[in-house]
Amino acid sequence: MPQVKEEAYELTQAESGVASTDLGPGKDQNEWEDLFRYKIPVGRFLKFQPNTPFSAYLYNLAENIEGAIADDGGVQTDETVAAQEATANDMILLPATPAVGDAYYFGYRYAFSKLRVNIGTAGVGTWTIVWEYYTGAAWTTITGLTDGTTAFTAAAGNRDVTFTPPNGWARTVVKGRNLYWIRARVSVYSAVTTQPKGTQAWMSSAE
């Protein structure tokens, strides 16, 4: 069922009977969605029945990622601009010769539950990646995650990484960007025949 878990300030639930048109002229869907984000207390969920128009909107919502950082041996490269536009193969998902600990970071200002990566070039080789989030003290594995990128070896096109936002997920600063991050970290490496590259990335808050 679609759900949103975000930062909020005051109200506990949406008022009944509110429609997106009630925001008035000049308002767009992003503002409509943000209106609901800010009505949910920190650490709480607002659930919508799956047959409601707003739940369908949330399910299909995809926004530009706000942080995309390639980490090669501790040297981090900010690829956020590349991840926000459609130039092919300008996201270096893994180094040409990866090592254990190399990673790619994806971040957004809100907690999220789905990452969509447009793979431009499918990787070929032998490696394993683990998807992790930051607890406020350490990076740890995201449990129950489904990796539609297959460690960046899936065929070119849009591939989804889905998971339930972990309890205790905390913002942290990566390359000067203070966001909620997940990272794909190399845990085993043997060989790369074709280096995986990405074209664009988006996130969604709905499950």
Question: Describe it for me?
Answer:
This protein has helices spanning 29-37, 53-60, 80-84; strands at residues 3-4, 46-47, 63-64, 67-72, 75-78, 91-92, 103-108, 114-121, 124-134, 139-141, 146-147, 157-162, 172-174, 177-194, 197-204. By secondary structure, the protein is mainly β. The protein folds into 2 domains: 3-60, no CATH class; 63-204, Jelly Rolls (Sandwich), CATH 2.60.120. The strands form 3 sheets. Strands 4, 5, 7, 9, 10, 13 and 14 form a 7-stranded antiparallel sheet that branches. Strand 13 and strand 14 form a beta hairpin. The chain is globular and about 40 Å long. Mean pLDDT is 80; it is low at 1-32.
Short description:
The protein is mainly β and 207 residues long. 11% of the residues lie in helices and 40% in strands.
Radius of gyration: 18 Å
How much β-strand is present in the residues? 35-45%
Kindly report the CATH topology of the largest domain.
Jelly Rolls
**What is the 3D form?**
globular
The poorly predicted ranges are 1-32
For the report, how would you describe the main beta sheet?
A: 7 strands, antiparallel
Structural class per helix/strand content?
A: mainly beta
How many β-strand runs?
15
Q: What are the main properties of this structure?
A:
single chain, Jelly Rolls, disordered N terminus, 3 helices, 2 domains, 207 residues, seven-stranded antiparallel beta sheet, mainly beta
